[in-house]
Amino acid sequence: MKKSIYGIKFSSEFWRYFSNTYWMILEKISKVFLGFLVIMYVTRYLGPNNFGILAYFEGVLAIAVAISSLGLANGGPFMKQVLNPKEDISKVVGTSSIILVASSLISIFLIFALVFLEIIDPANSELILIMSSIILLQNLNMIFIDLFQSNARYKEVFTASIIAFLISSSFKVAFVFYELDIFYFALSFVLDNLFLTIFLYIKIIKLDIKISDLYFDKFFAIKILKTCTPLVIVAGSAILQSRIDQLMLKHLASNFELGNYSATMRVTDIAYMFIGIIATSLYSKLINTNDNQEKFSHLVIVLMRITFLVSFAIFLTFFFLGDFITSIIFGDEFSLAGELLSILAFGILINFPSAVYTKLLYVKNLEKKFMYIVISGFAINTLLNYILIPTYGANGAAYATITTFFIINFIVDLFSKDLRALYILKIRSLNIFHL
Is 90 exceeded by the pLDDT of residue 108? Predict the structure, then answer.
């Protein structure tokens, strides 16, 4: 008889997904440890003000990437179509890739237009012009990664990602060593993505997908774009919700407070990354068990319990060791970061269901409900930031984030009967001692 953990049998299928998750976690851990000294080196060299400027442009481009991606890849409809045995993989990949390339080029053109009209920080406009190619590169990378993920072959992504990371990190260290200006660090963001794109493209051959076989299908494009229509709003609202605090700090506070807040977010982003890979690594498993309600509910509760326990451990670490962690990484110049990390630790704990819950809504074809959730979150977060930042500065942005997380995770669902069954699973997952 096979042993099990929380009812998940140690079958060949389990080990396949376990191996995939292992490589995802190993990639993230490797990047954290390998990049630790690089982050310290670069952040201390740039200081809060220059770091804040780069973080602001990163935020603008993150919004552009989210909108131009159309919600198609990164665990969206693209992966569902790749896993659909009735669809031709060459058609799915070819059509989706062309759609994303086109939307990326349109977004880059709009960025250039905003710079020309002096709407985006005219004093540092050359930086965002350099960084705008990230939009295309990241969208291509999401397609590549989803292909490996759908085949539970994240090991290939791990290899490509680590090689690309080491090369781009070497450039960053060299830029600091030669005391180059902020222009070159803007360029380093492009190199991060460019090297990853190159190595993923080389690896994609192992999936037996021939680039020459890919083709564009107009009818499939119309079909998938109809699916993506609400996802564009979702993607834009979701990234705005996560970045609006940094954008508003730029205009309502100072580059110093923005730099401290953005540096702290780099630390919390690592936490969300670890939590997110739990859901992402088993997304295809959720899709495959969707027709069996008992197995599906069981898997959801297990996943959410794991994310809760991981979130709780991270919360305790950040809350009690916030000053120690930030002083080691960023130095004394980032004087606000320790207190901010202790505050934002509550957000990590409160937001524990979101990584799994987002995938559930995609699996259950409740994208429109997700759209309402993220739009609500964006509106609430924007309002709270507008009220709190002028008085409390960066701390106000942190308070707004925590409050928003609580509302969208534990209150908004109660107003929709379609979400109550999933909400119950979310609440049941909090009882870690009984299934």
Answer: yes
